[in-house]
Amino acid sequence: MYLNRPILLTIYLKRSIERKINFQYYLCKVMSKNTDELFKNVVSHTKEYGFVFQSSEIYDGLSAVYDYGQLGSELKNNLKTYWWKSMVQLNENIVGIDSAIFMHPKVWKASGHVDGFADPMIDNKDSKKRYRADNLLEDKIVRYIKDGKIEKADKLQTDMEAALSADNLPRLKELIEEHEIVCPVSGTRNWTEVRQFNLMFSTQMGAMAEGSDEVYLRPETAQGIFVNFLNVQKSGRMRIPFGIAQIGKAFRNEVIARQFIMRMREFEQMEMQFFVKPGTEMEWYNHWKDARLKWHLALGTPAEKYRYHDHTKLAHYANAAVDIEFEFPFGFKEVEGIHSRTDFDLSQHENFSGKKLQYFDTAENKNYVPYVIETSIGLDRLFLLTLCNAYEEQDLSNDEKQDSRTVLHLHPCLAPVKAAIFPLTKKDGLPEKAREIMDLLKLDFNLQYDEKDSIGKRYRRQDAIGTPVCITVDHQTLEDNTVTIRHRDSMEQERVHADQLEKIISDLVSWKNLLR
Ligand code: ATP
Asked: Which of 95, 99, 109 lies closest to 349 in space, CA to CA?
């Protein structure tokens, strides 16, 4: 029987809701043509305008590693500032640190990463390509849905989830064989066994190959906070509840890295561990769950683009966990995790180091190991979210002419360039006057000067990188020191006195607009 795609999806949606299956994921994969196009355009835009480049591109790139260009690094710094100010500057009881990427190897034994931080992987013996076993099965489910084989999709989903939650690797292999999954490269079914693949990168510390110690590149920044818990608490005379925040690089040897900067092997995290009295953790968990979503929404993103995803299957150390997910062009995906981690990490470090990591509560007159609420957000995913959300291809055609522009509606606080300054022409002293105005403003704001091409083209270039205002210096400026300001989103223009520019721009880009 032939069923068209919407009918198939409706049937699958109904079943998915009944069985609590993540329908959204499959829906996006099946319906993804237009959004694929949009995402491709966003990705090429980031490269064209200097936001993100493939790492080592002249050598054909390094898989899942990216560099941030001249505008990307500005935007990234602004995102970090937004997070740091809201966490550290606005909370008297949160302080920030910057711990080293290398840590004692025992840290990762204690945290459980050496034994448990792994994904199930399988190799095809003919193509020598490596895959995540669960990704192969998910792709097969999508195939079944596209072909109208809903029963089969449903059954495979259930079997896969059962095998994953029981850590049953032979069963994953059986499923790959039963469903006759072939390697996309070789086309064969010549598979190895499914094995756990540890995601940590290791290297040698010390000059001598022999006798040097194996150390890891940290897979998360959180452990740098836990091992410094007492240092910070004592030196900062911190009283519970208090938090320690940190922004830094993390490294994971992801088996399959997909979707641009969504899943990278080197990425950046912004994490905060909030230490609380045991028994009060759920109160603080709810506080941070709420506060973190508000932080995202303050950027002006429509609320329906975000959702919570409460974890039903909790990690062994957690007693509550939720993801904040954002609707990317390829579906809802995790951007930030909020976890109630109990006293697991500090207790583990006590056991492995033999040092006490306890807090003396003067009100209670006793020592205890604090409980921890963690907020952990990926900076690169936040960066991608911000761009996807800001990107718009606008049709500006009217009866007289065809016109269009690509515009990034970035919040002015986040925009890499705050204002652009244009002399109307390259002569009559206008460039000199424009530079004079720029010199007065450039210490406070990141500006661009542009005198090439028509004003219209210059506006388009600034729209494409999200510059909130453009300032044009013309002949009248030489007479009365007034300029034209053109606003990015409305494209409206106004005439103002050059002396007002500093106030106008600073009002526009003030962090008070976001953090008040
Ligand atoms: P996922 O389930 O997507 O692999 P995770 O649950 O392993 O993510 P956490 O360990 O909770 O992620 O890390 C916190 C945050 O770090 C994530 O919400 C995400 O934003 C970011 N993150 C994790 N892995 C990567 C990666 N490989 N590339 C980019 N960002 C990442």
From this structure: 109
110-119, 270-279, 346-355, 381-390: the lowest-pLDDT one: 110-119
Atom of ligand 1 minimally distant from the CA of 381: 20
Bond prior to 302 in cis (omega within 30° of 0)? no
Question: Can you tell me whether residue 114 is helix, strand or coil?
Answer: helix
Superfamily of domain 396-513: Anticodon-binding domain (3.40.50.800)
- The DSSP output letter for 86 is I
Terminal alpha carbon distance of the chain: 59
Percent of the chain with pLDDT over 90: 77
The structural architecture, per CATH, of the domain 1-29+118-197 is: 2-Layer Sandwich (3.30)
Q: Which residues line ligand 1 (CB under 6 A)?
A: 220, 252, 254, 263-264, 267, 269, 334-337, 376-378, 380-381
CATH 3.40.50.800 location in the chain: 396-513
Handedness of CA 365, 371, 377, 378 (dihedral sign): positive
Closest Cα to atom 2, ligand 1: which residue? 334
Measured CA to CA, the distance from residue 91 to residue 243 in angstroms comes to: 9
Index of the ligand 1 atom closest to the CA of residue 219: 10
Residues of the chain with CATH 3.30.40.230: 1-29+118-197
Of residues 300 and 240, more confidently modeled: 240
CB 392 within 8 A of CB 409: yes
pTM for the predicted model, two decimal places: 0.87
Statement: 71-117+235-393 belongs to CATH 3.30.930.10: yes
Residue nearest atom 20 of ligand 1, based on CA coordinates: 378
Q: How far is the CA of 39 from the centre of ligand 1 (A)?
A: 20
Q: How do residues 333-350 score in pLDDT, each as one tens digit? A: 999 999 999 999 999 999
The C-alpha atoms of residue 218 and residue 310 are separated, in whole angstroms, by 26
In our burial notation (b when 16+ CB lie closer than 10 A, e otherwise), range 193-229 reads: ebeebbbbeeeeeeeeeeeeeebbbbbbbbbbbbbbb
